[in-house]
Fold these 2 entries.
Entry 1:
Amino acid sequence: MASVLIVGASRGIGLEWVRQARAAGDRVVATARDDEGLQRLRDLGAVALKLDVMNTASASGLAWQIDGYAFDQIALVAGVFGSRTTGMQTPSEVEFNTVMQTNVLGPMRVLPQLQDALAPGARIAIISSRMGSISLRSGSHGWLYRASKAAVNSVLKDASLLMQGKACCISFHPGWVRTDMGGADGDIDVQTSVAGMRTVMAGLSATDNGSFINYDGERLSW
Ligand code: NDP
């Protein structure tokens, strides 16, 4: 039985991760930012914590909320896409701040608070995106989202070095998943995506630290 923390679990990939971990008998702590999300987590038997990664006070309160826990697996899932623009449309300052604060500042707020809540051999995953890869770049939509996921890949890479020996840190592409964000045309359902990532997480070794990995285990280039 593993001890698992999922950040950003009110719906989509995060909620499915809680569902599968609970079905496997894991002890799960998970976060949401509104009462409906928190209730969904409690209904699945998770310990539900209120957390909005865009809110400084809320995000900085995570450390004391997880005081005493030692997690085997942690997934940072919370993310937003922003508007569906194509090409080089300059985002508004408000949109830039929302996407960057959620997708980049969020993990930068959460990661440091995890350091005293890790079990030996802990694994930490940021749910990034292949759209954040610079070498695999194709397509022209989501300029701001791509920038945010490229930035969070950098954050993950540094975290993997800074936490070396304490945790194996990886960045995931979850696939193009049929969720509110991914839409109905996505390649895979959320069950397949999460099952794949959970299998990859379970099989990680120290040499995987700092890797960028597809949900099916394929290694991706940054
Ligand atoms: P959803 O839109 O279905 O869910 C997004 C989740 O993030 C919700 O739980 C949402 O909570 C939470 N969230 C958003 N903003 C905040 C915040 N400020 N604080 C805390 N939680 C927040 O998206 P997916 O499940 O599809 O995506 C999950 C992750 O996977 C994201 O990081 C996304 O970028 C990534 N991803 C998804 C892909 C896909 O095809 N679906 C492809 C590649 C990457 P709330 O309900 O409160 O809004």
Entry 2:
Amino acid sequence: MKSPIQSYLESLHAELSSLRSGEVASYIPELTKADPDWFGICVVTVDGVAYTAGDTAQRFTIQSVSKPFVYATALADKGRDFVGRRVGVEPSGDAFNSISLHPRTGAPLNPMINAGAIASAGMAAGTTAEQQWERIADSLGVFMGRPITLDEAVYRSESDTGFRNRAIAWMLKNFGIIDGDPMAVLENYFRQCSVLVDCRDLAYMAATLANGGVHPLTGRRALPAPDVERVLSVMATCGMYDYAGSWLYEVGLPAKSGVGGGIIAVLPGRFGIAICSPPLDEKGNSVRGIEVCKRLSRDFGLHLF
Ligand code: DON
């Protein structure tokens, strides 16, 4: 017999499948190949049980959902003080690609906007960009519970067209926020955005944060316990960009979205939630993803406050 949560997710999925607004991201040409009908919901509990509805095995690129996990990697590798000098924790209320840097220090306002995420990628352990990529890839794999793979076509497409991110990376170099070659750091950022995931992978990553930093199935620690609250805090205040305030008000959970159509949300100590649905609203957040989270929060009283 189906559990009540399984039946609930299936009927929510069926209901929201008919929600047809939003556009698939097109500013990275290769992303237009996503099917607007892909729609998956997955909830993973801290003891590793997964509840799924819809296209939860469909692969897509992680995009900005990678940002909290790479920020976590920077915190683990360089420590809170070092990272805090190079990336702030203030919501910018700006779009994901805004050049929101502190006017005096040049530090990006937070690690969820591109500027802060590129800076975070540059703080992964390693003395060369290649070593830093190995560290980022390994860390994302521990969060996911399996080795990562890239969508090479999306990576090339973003690298070929990411001129604004190039400008941001050079600004960061100008302020001494990036050591070494900013273009090599940026390529690692493009790679982290091109990591292939399915909805289950994202839900396990979210559940790892819910579980105090330990993957619920592998038992491996993905980040030191004190860093979990830091990562969840910036997800709560900055994870949904210029929708972050409304999100926290209405859904009340730390979260992160990506232009591939993924959203994760975390209920600490209980479970991780992931949705995949590529059509985005004008702020770059998955339309169905937001709706699923609003409904789960309301129907189960998940709002943290
Ligand atoms: O920096 C970029 O343009 C992308 N690779 C990632 C952006 C992203 O997912 C923003 N999120 N909504």
